[in-house]
Amino acid sequence: MHDSLLRDVAFWQFLLDIDRDFAKRAREDGCACGGHLHAGNYFRNPRGGPDGLPKECCVRLSLCCDREGCRKRLTPPSVRFLGPKVYLLPVIFLAAAMRQGPSPRAMRELCTLFVADRRTIARWQVLWQEHFPQTRFWKSEQARLPRPNEPTLLPRALVVAFFTSPNPRGDWERLLRFLSPITLAGGMAVAIPR
Ligand SMILES: [Zn+2]
């Protein structure tokens, strides 16, 4: 289920280009103080991707304000990194989704596929099934998605909504762009019940 692309270095370069575009747009907007933003990227050591992932694909793109007295860091959204999580966002998503549906994959198989232990994958399931539905992001954005024919649990509901074309790369792009606001600081914040 859509996992072969995640083994492909070219896919991660494709995602890097999307992140570069996010960073470019944030840079053009500049800092709220009026200062210019310059690159303040930092190196990560992400897990779950293919062997031989180029160094450039391990960099979290980030920006810093150049104005004295501000120097604020601005980290644009990403289609690759979810906050400080060590594993890559598409991996965190897909491993949890593959545990669901009519033919869920065995935990042992996913541990091998994504080089993660059971407890880590179990935490990702909790993240998507319990935490994510409570976020402000999901509460406001779920209305943008087509209504499913039958109720489907998260995160599989997003697979059903986005993986609709014969082009999995394009489907991944649409899904990850949709999710990208959750990668911002506070993006996974839970909605306050009224
Ligand atoms: Zn500034």
Q: Which short descriptors sum up this protein?
A:
single chain, 194 residues, mainly alpha, three-stranded antiparallel sheet, two-stranded antiparallel ribbon, 40% helix, binds zinc ion
The best one-word shape is: globular
Bound molecules: zinc ion
Q: How many strand segments? A: 5
Largest sheet: 3 strands, antiparallel
- Rounded mean pLDDT score: 94
Give the helix tally: 7
Radius of gyration, in angstroms, nearest whole number: 17 Å
Distance between the termini: 38 Å
Kindly state the percentage of residues in helix. 25-40%
Query: How do the strands line up in the largest sheet?
Result: 1-4-5
| Multimerization state | single chain
Low-confidence region ranges: none
Give the structural class.
mainly alpha
**SSE arrangement, N to C:** HEEEEEHHHHHH
Report the sheet-strand fraction: 5-15%
Compact overview of the structure:
The chain is built from 7 helices and 5 strands; from the N terminus they run αβββββαααααα.
Could you explain how this protein is built, in words?
The termini are far apart. With 194 residues, this protein is mainly alpha-helical. The strands form two sheets. Strands 1-4-5 form a three-stranded antiparallel beta sheet, with helices on one face. A two-stranded antiparallel ribbon has the order 2-3. 40% of the residues lie in helices and 6% in strands. It contains seven helices and five strands. Strand 4 (63-65) and strand 5 form a beta hairpin. Helix 2 (89-97) crosses helix 4. Zinc ion binds at residues 31, 33, 35, 65, 67, 70, 72.
